[in-house]
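Subgroup meeting minutes
Present: P.N., E.W., G.H.
Scribe: E.W.

1. P.N. recapped why we're keeping a running log of single-chain structure predictions: easier to compare across weeks, and new members can see raw inputs and outputs side by side.
2. G.H. added today's entry (650 aa).
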Amino acid sequence: MAALLLLSTLLLLPLLLLRLRLWPQLRWVAADVAFAVRAVRCKRALRASALAAAAADPEGPEGGCSLAWRLAQLARQRPTHTFLIHGARRFSYAEAERTSNRAARAFLRARGWRAGSGGGGAGRAGADERASLGAGDAAPAECGEDGATRGTAAAPLAPGATVALLLPSSPEFLWLWFGLAKAGLRTAFVPTALRRGPLLHCLRSCGARALVLAPGNHEQARGEGGFWLAAEPRSCAFLTLSEFLESLEPDLPALRALGLHLWAVGLETHVAGIHDVLAEVAAEVDEPVPGHLSAPGSMTDTCLYIFTSGTTGATVVLKSKFSAGQFWEDCQQHRVTVFQYIGELCRYLVNQPPNKAERSHKIRLAVGSGLRPDTWQRFVRRFGPLQVLETYGLTEGNVATFNYTGQLGAVGRASWLYKHLFPFSLIRYDVTSGEPVRDAQGHCVTTAPGEPGLLVAPVSLQSPFLGYAGGPELAQGKLLHDVFRPGDTFFNTGDLLVCDDQGFLRFHDRTGDTFRWKGENVATTEVAEVFEALDFIQEVNIYGVTVPGHEGRAGMAGLVLRPPHTLDLRQLYTHMCENLPPYAWPRFLRLQESLATTETFKQQKIRMASEGFDPSTLCDPLYILDQTENAYLPLTPARYSALLAGNLRI
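Output recorded in log:
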């Protein structure tokens, strides 16, 4: 009887595996189990860190585990170990801790914190009056002998207020980031390429109550940029810096009521209303601030997983700007073993001429996202042996995948074990309507192997979606309800992925109003708003098109002219350069009589993207951005061929 039962099991097991689509995945079971074990160990280690943090500082932030706490712990454990290398400068963990403590104290003064009321040192000499400001007080304006106003002190920042950092890659970026966390303030990282309208939109969206500039950004922002002056979300205003300086004295009462915090890194000259943050940091003592003042942290803090070099005790090598020609020499000089990439970075490296250092490095692992299969092969063949760990994730999302097997072109695996630990699903998506496909009962439908599907993940206590800084309505737009059963809620990543019969996930396309180019997210609505400001443009449709040999999608603009105007390419180019960062510039223009729309009058971006930019197949006038000529030029068959051959830079 037992033998018969065993025989039946052996016969039925393959059928069951085929039914569950698990048979092709059996060869990867060992790798799946090994990764799951490591993931569980990582979670337990974070939980242990959180408990240790809570035990060490019972009055610390809720959740205990945070970047600020981890930095302080490492500074005690290995104070002399190098934390950061930037050019010729080196900083130990102890130096990083002390400098971030000074930064925290400087920002705490902007919160109106009393230096003697929370423990931790006397603070800056002669500043007791400012330090003792209460939550509703503001320091008076400083006036010179002529009675002119030299500047004002803003109302204290509220706990949890957002401070925008508009800084390039530098040690100061890290010190101020950690300092803000210790001071209980949120940080918004603003791309340094933003200017004018997009910059103001970014500051509005994140609800910034303060802004920290670098000198270059300060000069860039003086002309047209503006700064948030509001102390309350519903009482906001923007003024350009020049307007602020001119109108400071007559508007002083209103400015006091609104409040302003504006810092710059390394001001060369004194500017009224702008404070030198590095001077304020240097004037503070480096004693730790009370733990209960810092920003709350938890094991769902994405930074704990992204900023791994700083949380594991390793050394970070930071460059102000990426240089493909210098990359391997830097890796060799600093004995780099791991580096983080985006797809474009690897393509730049494989397109460089041969370099002696490219085979004598110590790199064992490259981690990142967006690496095309063809570039992946060339990269490993030329610079290996090394492991490539391709990943998929969103900063605000509650799902991530890891290609821990090294399968070429995959971003991760959808094994049963992985989905049990980190649940997600691929559901059918109608690219025409822009909505998930639902069955007769109103529920979403999962995809079959090889079929593109929308990646969604259930929202739960274990995998929460924390929303966006701009308000709850933005978060609601990313949620899907009643996906598989009434009442459930899923996070919509907005990305289409494909799962093959072996369980490997591959990125397929991005839906919605964004696309990725040069490693940056391009918002089609923001680009369209800039173009629509031109008087000769009536309608515009911005979308991304694939370009052979390039990562991501290049921007393309479908334009309808306003009669009786004609297309002014020079004015369009100048206006675009003044109002958009370079990565958001559309590389192609398509002049149309009318824009294609759906039955519900939505612009058809998917269809337009699929039509591409081949002048031999499109009848509409086409233009290409020639960066050597700094102008839009007609896209002729000759230029199209040069682009495909890699002889025309876009």
